[in-house]
Amino acid sequence: MDRWFLIASTLLAVIGAVWGMRSVHRGHRSRWTVAWMTAAFLCQLGFLSLRGEARAACPLADRGEILVFLSWSLTLFYLLVGPAYRISLLGVFTAPVVVVFQGIALIPGVLSAHPTRIQGGNAWHETHSATSVLAYGALALAAVAGVMFLVLDKQLKDHHLKSGLFRNLPPVRELLVSLERLLRLGGVLLTIGIIAGFMMPHDQSATGHLIAALAVWSAYMLVLVIKKLRGLTGRRLSLLAVALFILSLGVFAFV
Amino acid sequence: MELICLGLNHKTAPVEVRERFAVGSNKLGESAAELVARTGAAESVVISTCNRTEFYLAASDPRAALASLAAHLAAKTPDPEAATAHFYQMERSEAARHLCRVVSGLDSMMLGETEIFGQVKQAYQAALDAGTTSGVLNRLFQRAFGIGKKVRTETSIQEGSTSVGNVAVDLAEKIFGHLKDSEVMILGAGEMSRITAQSLVSRGARSIFVSNRSFDRAEELASEMGGHAVRFDDWQKVLERIDIVISSTGAPHSIVQRSDVEKVRRARKFRPLFFIDIAVPRDIDPGVGEIEEVYLYDIDTLEQLATEARERRRKQIEECERIIDLELAKLNLPGL
């Protein structure tokens, strides 16, 4: 049953992405993307609640669950940020990322077919896992906003202003403000996750994961500090948000 | 009861003729009531803008109503024959179609402009308040507003800016969003930069700095726009806080060099900076546009964008008229 929720959620995200892209191609706002993504979000919730029940803990025990939790977190932040800042196009850029993550989770073997109950759960461990993946959702959305900025920046620089995509992209300043806020939010959540990670009981095998997480955290903090003190061009901030997010996914290799 | 329309516009009459027949916006209702009384028509609406004056009547004897209306208008001019030659006359479905074209902005000087929609609504409301509309004109105007909205939402007739100033303002909004947090600097107090800066202020730009070789002229323009004058030798000092620079000096060489912007990048914390260069020869060295956070548009690019928008709007006319014909065909309006 949990797998069906995941399939439904992925299909809804596919519809959201295709619908949004077609609207943008025609030069219209993709008003329905938020509805498709809300439906996808509800299916993600269905999946996670069934897995959570089976695990009797936060469902972050295998890579498939981590990818779905990450997609859920990404969708959650999109639903919070997109409509609030009238960035409807954020959904058009978010939906394909959700499709890719959940598509990978659906590959046989990635998601445990028979989730087993986690014995001896620990509050620090669960806090570490949940806040870290939530942080990744915010950071993923920051990367999405970064991609949107890079597209808009290129169009403005090259004076290519005729496309439907250009008309629908939010203003440069709004994108940069959203990007920075998402980075800050991701940074705060990641900090909590890292602290919880050091507090939880861990053996030698978890050291690599924690070091990688600490490296990611340090890189994001460095970007935020440089942005605050010295300033960064929109292009560099966006490139860093995208590059760091892609590199930071490597942390899951140590899970 | 038949629908008739008599009018003149920017295509049929020069301004000296149009102004003779113009009706003030506060007298539209009164004028509609006067027409009903003089022409024997049952209903009337008077539309008057800077580019057109049109009289819509619903009368059981349209010929008599038209004759009375023509006589009434002729009395307003010393040369009635010459003046009335500028009028066009339409009846029934042709008049209804014309009203829909007007409301949709297809008959406007600036194709697709939106102001006309509100002006016709105002004229209709004045007639409604004066009690000069009933079964024919109420249904016609309400349908025309519906069709006008449909044309504007289903086509690109109002998309894109068709003047250099508006293109620049739209670009500024694409970069900065709401302009209320944006500061603007004008280099060279020319007419074109004044118009563009005024558009930015009307869309909420926070403050304006004016720098000109003649400081008196800078002060004059700054005071006119509620801004601050800056001596021409000092404009680089202000650049640190500015978001948008409009330049149109008469200088024979570049005024803004790449090094001028490079110097303030750190102090600006690399915030986006928009340069609008409407001078010929250009005031801003093209190298400035290569700086990451700078967006540079010169007069040729802006003019090209405006021309493309006008062309796109022109291509939409056929589609707009198809919608109008389709929607009018669905109706069973009385008087058509």
Structure in words:
The complex is a heterodimer of chains A (255) and B (336). In chain A, helix 5 (123-158) runs antiparallel to helix 9 (234-248), helix 7 (172-199) runs antiparallel to helix 8 (207-229) and helix 7 (172-199) packs parallel to helix 9. With 255 residues, chain A is mainly α. Chain A is 75% helix and 0% strand. The mean pLDDT of chain A is 86. The longest helix of chain A has 36 residues, at 123-158. Chain A is flat and about 60 Å long. Chain A has helices at 2-26, 33-55, 63-81, 89-106, 123-158, 164-168, 172-199, 207-229, 234-248. Chain A folds into two domains: 1-111; 124-255. Chain B folds into two domains: 2-154, Glutamyl-tRNA reductase, N-terminal domain (Beta Polymerase, domain 2, 2-Layer Sandwich); 164-305, NAD(P)-binding Rossmann-like Domain (Rossmann fold), CATH 3.40.50. Chain B contains 13 helices and ten strands. In chain B, strand 6, helix 10 (215-224) and strand 7 (228-231) form a beta-alpha-beta unit. The longest helix of chain B is centred in the last third of the chain and has 32 residues, at 299-330. The radius of gyration of chain B is 25 Å and the shape is elongated. Chains A and B meet through helix 5, helix 7 and helix 9 of A and helix 8 and helix 13 of B.
